[in-house]
Design brief:
The structure holds 3 protein chains of 3 kinds. By secondary structure, chain B is mainly α. In chain B, 78% of the residues lie in helices and 1% in strands. Chain B has a two-stranded antiparallel sheet. In chain B, a hairpin with a 2-residue loop joins β1 and β2. Chain B is globular. In chain C, α5 runs antiparallel to α6. Chain C has 2 domains: 242 residues, P-loop containing nucleotide triphosphate hydrolases (Rossmann fold), CATH 3.40.50; 71 residues, BMC (bacterial microcompartment) domain (Alpha-Beta Plaits). The chains are: A mainly alpha, B mainly alpha, C alpha/beta.
Chain lengths: 263, 275, 335
């Protein structure tokens, strides 16, 4: 574990050196993300200018859920973005060879290699939304609220990363799977709004099949109401752990099916 | 007539190549499509919740049925009018292979246009019919009568073509920015976000404050998405319809001329670099 | 040291017919085909040996190397290096090997070269003093000093290759795999790299397995070669043996004074030799005759030629490996 952290910090240091060379590019990326989130919030604002509550959820409650959803997404984006590249090109071009000739875990090596500052767009927006909404909400506060926030963030990030790992690993068989990652990743937008607005099918789907609802709505729901911690937080933990186990299994299977490229 | 014939014969291979490309990457295409359509359904549910929570039948003049049409037809319009051939121009400029385009005896924008036409034929087959049918069946179920008129539909198609061509030439202009920009991904994201907003794809222009709405209605971006969608919905009639479509044509011509101008100066730049 | 037995690797491949029709067909009913990239190869390598792995494009060289380095999992067969099976405990295994792929770099593109080594030091857990010693040695052999502070993307191809080889040797591997180490380099740089590889093999006792297109690489570096074609081994042995078996082949080249005189020469009839023993190529007045000096002596060959025609210029050369290999490939025989 110590070695893992050490390697990780070395890679981040290398990455930051590289970042210094391409400052403007990263700034532009983060601005793009920030801007796109900003327009979404304007949209929510327009809706609430006409109605007092969205199926029982107030404006600030919606902002809280929306903001909460951006944080695990942003953390995943910040640290684990290179998984996208596995599905898009690393496997197809045969560049995965490199990761297999090193005495460290290939998944860890892929992940640690890139650190995506663009994600600050999501993190800044998420934190800003929480800061704006929390003063307007009368949320219950217990001694364990803060630790549970951390637990929820860790495990909901794990849900994102595990799903990306599974879909990236599909490329070991199919050469490219970026589109599958993309398709799955898009379902995460469902988690930005309360699941109560969806029909039963969607609700079941994002709770039990692709459990993105546990990355935002359920944990946020607990922090808003203090109800049902066992399901709201426990579900997040279980979903994270189960998906991670599946992800590691599929990844390892995939590595042995890897076909490289060329002759 | 024979000139037209030889024109099409010359560019037909590009269309065929474009079609083959998208068929080869059909899995990518379908998955992206599903991902994007998912967003429409999120919006659908959000609006359903809005109408459930609202006492009035309409929201700033839009009924639930209108909103459904708006969401899906905006998506369809945006998807069909979207042009990424120009992104390739940027990449070709960056890696210098644009020079290969210049030594061929065809107009470079026509090459891209016809190549994209190939992929668009595929896109139309796969998404146009299901979405239009789906929307109309939904409206039929809601109102008990067919809502779309033949003239609105045909005018929409015409307006969609203007939208596509405008989008194509805007992207050609953007592609040339590759001379100055390194990060095509980041700036591409910003460009798309801004265009989506200005064209009314993110939020219907009708929901915006009047001053902003009037400005955006005048700018070329509204003709990329908002104008065709409003025509589909039958919101524009009579002189307003003529005015809106006239604006589309006006901006198309302006942007076309701008792209030609940039291309000319780009060519000289290329020569200066000796590339 | 290295033991390979009956190694096989199969790939599945989708075949697309050309044109629009093919695209549409592939949409509904893609054709699949199984390709045997490596089809039952066996060989072994001793410690400290330098083995050349040769074969035409698509022969399966890289596939074998990738199985030996643990990148690919064999469909069947055994490969054991130092008593370890590459795929079994990959992380432990790769610490003992170094790998260089000539066509792609393992260096960090945007960073100074030195940084790559600093990261690799951590990845391979090389102790500080060992790292210093190693860097001094590699510096001396590969002359990295002049560009170690430059960003990798600014290096020339030759510098990059030297840097890549150094990167693969930082952790003192027991086996070094080099896949096309001289590809795309000019003659002087090639020479430079070959000398470095030789020195490393001698001083470190590193076992080297090398694939290449360039036969002079093999001639200068390796004592032994394994030649493969279409996934099968076609030759395994000393280079001298190969030369010995085929070494009797000589090439007689000459220029005729009158191109039309060529009709006066009929070697096959004169020496009643088979196509295998005498081959003739002509390009206008330039003639080259490849012949087996066991069947026809050089002397007879010369005297017959000179008695029949007037020549401007004439010379006889030994067959080089390239010739031999070309013959093997062309006839597709096993040796």
């Amino acid at each position: 574990m110590k070695r893992v952290l050490k390697l990780h910090s070395i890679f981040i240091a290398q990455y930051l050196k590289r970042l210094m060379e391409y400052k403007v590019d990263f700034l532009i990326g983060a601005t793009g993300i920030l801007l796109s989130q900003f327009f979404q919030i304007v949209f929510i604002g327009i809706i609430f200018s006409q109605i007092p509550a969205l199926q029982g959820w107030s404006y600030y409650e919606i902002l809280f859920i929306y903001g909460f959803s951006l944080i695990p997404k942003g953390i995943d984006h910040l640290f684990f973005d290179n998984l996208w590249m596995v599905g898009y090109q690393i496997v197809r071009k045969g560049d995965f060879d490199k990761y297999l000739t090193r005495p460290i875990n290939s998944l860890f090596y892929v992940i640690v290699e890139k650190f995506c500052v663009d994600a600050l767009g999501e993190l800044v927006m998420g934190i800003a939304l929480l800061c704006v909404s929390i003063p307007h909400l009368s949320m219950p506060f217990y001694w364990y609220t803060i630790p549970l926030v951390l637990v929820a963030l860790v495990f909901s990030t794990m849900i994102y990363t595990a799903l990306k790992t599974v879909t990236a690993a599909i490329s070991f068989w199919t050469k490219a799977s970026g589109h599958i990652t993309h398709m799955l990743y898009m379902t995460n937008d469902f988690s930005k709004y309360p699941v109560t607005i969806y029909n039963n099918f969607v609700r079941t789907f994002i709770t039990y099949i692709i459990p993105f609802a546990f990355t935002a709505y359920y944990p946020a729901c607990f922090f808003l109401t203090g109800e049902n911690p066992l399901f709201n937080i426990g579900g997040t933990v279980i979903a994270g752990v189960v998906l991670l186990a599946i992800a590691l299994f599929v990844w390892n299977k995939g590595v042995s099916a890897y076909e490289s490229a060329g002759s | 007539m024979s000139m037209i014939k030889s024109f099409f014969r010359k560019y037909k291979p590009f269309t065929s190549a474009g079609f083959q490309d998208i068929v080869a990457y059909r899995a990518n295409f379908i998955c992206f499509l599903i991902g994007e359509i998912m967003k429409c359904f999120i919006m659908f549910f959000v609006w359903k919740a809005v109408f459930n929570s609202s006492e009035s039948e309409t929201f700033m003049g839009f009924s639930m049925g209108d909103m459904v049409v708006y969401i899906f037809i905006t998506f369809l319009t945006g998807y069909l009018a979207y042009s990424d051939g120009a992104y390739a121009i940027g990449e070709e400029i960056v890696d210098g292979s644009i020079a290969m385009r210049m030594i061929k005896p065809c107009s470079f924008d026509m090459c891209f246009l016809f190549q994209e036409m190939g992929s668009n034929i595929f896109k139309i087959c796969v998404i146009f019919v299901p979405i239009v049918l789906g929307v109309e069946i939904y409206r039929f179920a809601l109102y008990g009568a067919i809502q779309i008129t033949l003239s609105a539909f045909l005018l929409y198609l015409l307006s969609l073509i203007f939208a596509y061509l405008t989008s194509f030439y805007i992207n050609v202009c953007y592609g040339f920015l590759a001379f100055f920009l390194k990060n095509l991904w980041g700036t591409g994201l910003i460009k798309q976000v801004i265009i989506d907003f200005l064209s009314g794809a993110t939020i219907p222009l009708a929901f915006m404050p009047p001053v902003l709405r009037n400005i955006l209605n005048f700018l070329p971006f509204s003709s990329l998405s908002y104008t065709p969608v409003m025509i589909y919905m039958g919101m524009y009639t009579g002189t307003e319809l003529l005015y809106r479509m006239g604006m589309q044509v006006f901006w198309l011509v302006v942007i076309f001329l701008v792209s030609k101008l940039i291309w000319k100066s780009a060519v000289t730049r290329l020569c200066v670099h000796g590339g | 040291m290295i033991y390979v037995k009956d190694l096989k690797k199969e790939f599945k491949k989708t075949i697309k017919e050309p044109g629009l029709k093919g695209s549409i067909k592939a949409l509904f009913k893609p054709d699949k085909e199984i390709i045997k990239a490596v089809d039952g190869i066996s060989f072994s390598v001793e410690k400290g040996e330098m083995l050349g792995f040769i074969g035409p494009n698509g022969a399966g060289k890289s596939t074998v190397i990738k199985m030996l380095t643990g990148i690919l999992t064999p469909t069947s067969g055994i490969c054991r290096i130092n008593g370890q099976i590459p795929q079994e405990n990959r992380k432990k295994y790769v610490k003992e090997i170094g790998v260089v792929f000539g066509q792609r770099t393992q260096l960090w593109w945007d960073l100074a070269l030195r940084e790559t080594y600093a990261v690799l030091k951590e990845i391979y857990e090389v102790p500080d003093d060992m790292y210093k010693k190693r860097m001094t040695f590699l510096n001396e052999v590969l002359e990295l000093d002049s560009f170690i502070t430059s960003p990798v993307r600014t290096l020339s191809l030759g510098q990059r290759m030297r840097a890549d080889i150094a990167a693969s040797l930082l952790h003192s591997p027991k086996v070094l795999f080099l896949d096309e180490p001289t590809i795309g380099l000019d003659v002087v740089v090639k020479d430079n790299i070959r000398n470095a590889i030789k020195k490393i093999n001698e001083e470190d006792g590193t076992t080297v397995i090398l694939t290449t297109h360039d036969l002079s690489d093999i001639e200068l570096l390796c004592e032994r070669i394994v030649m493969i074609d279409k996934g099968k081994k076609v030759f395994d042995g000393e280079i001298s043996e190969l030369k010995h078996n085929f070494g009797q082949m000589r090439t007689l080249r000459f220029e005729l004074q009158k191109a039309a005189d060529i009709d006066l020469l009929d070697y096959q009839k004169k020496f009643s030799a088979t196509q295998d023993d005498i081959e003739i190529e002509s390009d206008g007045a330039l003639i080259s005759v490849r012949f087996n000096s066991d069947a026809v002596s050089v002397e007879d060959m010369l005297s017959y030629t000179l008695s029949q025609v007037h020549v401007k210029d004439i010379n006889v050369t030994d067959a080089d490996i390239e010739d031999i290999i070309r013959r093997i490939y062309r006839r597709e025989v096993s040796v």
